[in-house]
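Before going further, learn to read the protein records used in this course. The integers have meaning only within a learned vocabulary of local backbone shapes. To see the layout at work, look at the sequence and tokens printed below.
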Amino acid sequence: MSTTGYAYAFLNRKLKQTNRRFKSKRMRQVVIYLQQTNSELVQQTTFTLEETFHQFEVIRLWEQPTNVFLEHSGLLPFAVLSQTNNRTATLQQVAQEISEITEQRIQNNIAASTFILAGLVLEKEIIQQLLRRELMQESVTYQAILAEGLAEGLAEGRAQEVRRVAVNLLKERMSAKIVARVTGLSVEQVQQLASEEAGNAGE
């Protein structure tokens, strides 16, 4: 099954769950595309998976008028992805709108969401110039991403340290089994390291 197939299978399960919970509600399926693409999928409004048939609306953000997103604070993060001739100027306008939001928590979260989505079409330096960093840092969205990045960084650092120890033990001519026992790596991983080190030494 393709990635699209898995996505629609997941969607199908969620729709069934939602339908059971809210039987009296009318459901509408909408697919939103964030970035402009030449893929034919962005024109597709139906999808059939086994015995299920889905019909949905498609919103291609790059075709939507910018002013629509500037009229509602919750839509501000999407404005830079809309039908605009100058994304930097649009982001500047969004930043101005964000600065006028009085509710601090909402302001922080919208700023963080804008930072993330603007990164799809603008350079980080431009975004940082226009959006106040302190606003994003207090956002739960920003903090979650930061925490995840920190965790990944720590995990990567630990992995590199384990690898370094394993390589050093191999240089001391310890067997792959002993190195695996000491470092927690599998014997196969240790053997792969040994092979890589032998290859590097032969270059």
User: Anything to note?
Assistant: The longest strand covers residues 30-33. The mean pLDDT is 79. DSSP finds nine helices and four strands in the chain. The CA atoms of residues 165 and 183 lie 7 Å apart.
